[in-house]
Write a structure and sequence with these properties.
Elements lengths: L1 E5 L11 E5 L11 E16 L7 H6 L8 E7 L8 H15 L9 E4 L9 H10 L7 H7 L8 E9 L4 E9 L12 E6 L5 H13 L16 E6 L8 H21 L7 E9 L2 H13 L1 H8 L5 H10 L10 E4 L2 E4 L8 H11 L3 E7 L5 E8 L15
Parallel strand pairs: 4-5, 8-9, 10-13
Antiparallel strand pairs: 1-6, 2-3, 3-4, 3-9, 6-7, 7-8, 10-14, 11-12, 11-13
């Protein structure tokens, strides 16, 4: 047994790391645009990256290291993606680390960037930020803001995990992202820090698994960025670890951050969980759920609060999975909008469905009636007003 306790101040709860952010002029409004996460002793890390074939220079640079390497420094910047910059973009990162190494000893340093594609890094401005860094700082707020671009709100979360034996460890994350989000990862940077004494093999296993049901299950506009990065960093400083408890906390963090991306998605007004069940397999359910979350026709129906179930059924049929209209049932929350005995919406059910669709968050449940496969994907409309919601849609 274990308890999960929500904490304030994000990354500041995790032992063994230092972090902060400064303004270098990359953002014209003077907001933070350069950040760091570092440790006195090398930390273990696991990472997942975009599926886009044109991966940005920081990802290319990262992949030069041997599998399972440790690092002691992560450099972060916004406003410039350092993507589609070729070998020069990678060389620019090496040059920056040569300069930074004169100020603090670096071990396998890594970088992550977000912003405009196609431009080389402004070396002069970034170097100026090195002189502003307080490398003994612990400011979750300043580093979280340093990676924000079109985000309308800061994204950070932290938990203390208390085990039955009275011992505990901490896990926290910061994240950015608001557009170019597709169910093949999201346009985002997300950095999860923990002081749990987690083995490298568990880091790799659990990060891969949690991504399937969180960042790989959300959609805003159907695009996939060149820079998408998810990293899990562990200092091991607590000396405490429980796999079940860690998995629970990690899953909660990644799902909440993924939903935050959808809530912040280029002016979206609603977040919808597309729950597909009764499919021939989990993979088939995933394919249909992601097709629904990514459909522009469905997104416009959500924005227009139109309970036209035809768009839902059509998208499922077009997804290529095994399905049968005589077995299909579609619900908006608990309101039945279609099955073979109710192919037409009567006035009462249409009004109930419309009432559901006026909410900031709800579920569209599609029971295929074939077998036991299930998957839930998350999507939104493409409206123009951001509305806060409070949702926990883990299937």
């Amino acid at each position: 047994m274990f308890n999960l306790i929500s904490l304030k101040n994000g990354l500041e709860n995790v032992d063994g790391f230092f972090f902060g952010g400064v303004s270098t002029g990359l953002k014209p409004n003077g907001d933070n645009d350069l950040g760091f996460i570092r440790a006195d002793e090398p930390f273990m890390l696991s990472a997942k990256f975009t599926s886009n074939k044109f991966q940005a220079a920081p990802i290319v640079h990262f992949k030069r290291y041997e599998k399972g390497f440790k690092s002691n420094f992560l450099l972060l910047n916004s406003k410039n993606a350092n993507a589609m910059t070729g070998q020069r973009g990678v060389d620019d990162i090496d040059e920056l680390f040569k300069i930074l190494n004169q100020k603090t000893p670096l071990i396998n340093p890594i970088m992550s960037s977000t912003g405009v594609i196609g431009y080389r890094l402004n070396q002069e401005k970034i170097r100026s930020g090195f002189d502003k860094f307080d490398l003994n700082q612990k400011s979750s707020d300043s580093v979280a803001r340093a990676i924000m671009t079109t985000d309308s709100f800061k994204k950070e979360i932290a938990f203390r995990v208390e085990l039955e034996n009275g011992k505990s460890f901490n896990i926290a994350a910061i994240c950015k992202g608001a557009g170019m989000i597709n169910p093949a990862f999201a346009t985002m940077l997300c950095f999860i820090l923990t002081d749990a004494a987690i083995p490298q093999s568990d880091m790799d296993e659990l990060l891969k698994e949690t991504t399937k049901y969180s960042f790989d299950a959300v959609s805003v506009d159907g695009d996939t960025s060149t820079n998408d990065t998810l990293m899990l960093l562990s200092s091991g400083k607590s000396g405490v670890y429980d796999k079940e408890a860690f998995k629970f906390a990690l899953d909660k963090i990644t799902l909440e951050m993924a939903l935050n991306l959808v809530k912040d998605g280029e002016g979206s007004t609603k977040v919808v969980a597309f729950e597909v069940k009764g499919a021939a397999s989990d993979d088939e359910a995933s394919k249909a759920a992601k097709a629904l979350s990514n459909s522009l026709l469905v997104k416009t129906a959500i924005f227009g609060e139109d309970p036209n179930w035809g768009r839902i059924a059509s998208t499922i049929g077009a997804s290529g999975i095994e399905c049968d209209s005589t077995k299909l049932a579609i619900y908006y929350d608990d309101v039945l909008v279609y099955d073979k005995d109710h192919p037409e919406l009567d006035e009462a059910r249409e009004q109930k469905a419309h009432t559901v669709m006026k909410k900031d968050s709800y579920r569209i449940i599609c029971d295929l009636g074939i077998a036991n496969g299930k998957f839930t994907a998350y999507g939104c409309d493409l409206g123009h007003t951001y509305v806060k919601i409070n949702a926990d849609y883990r299937s």
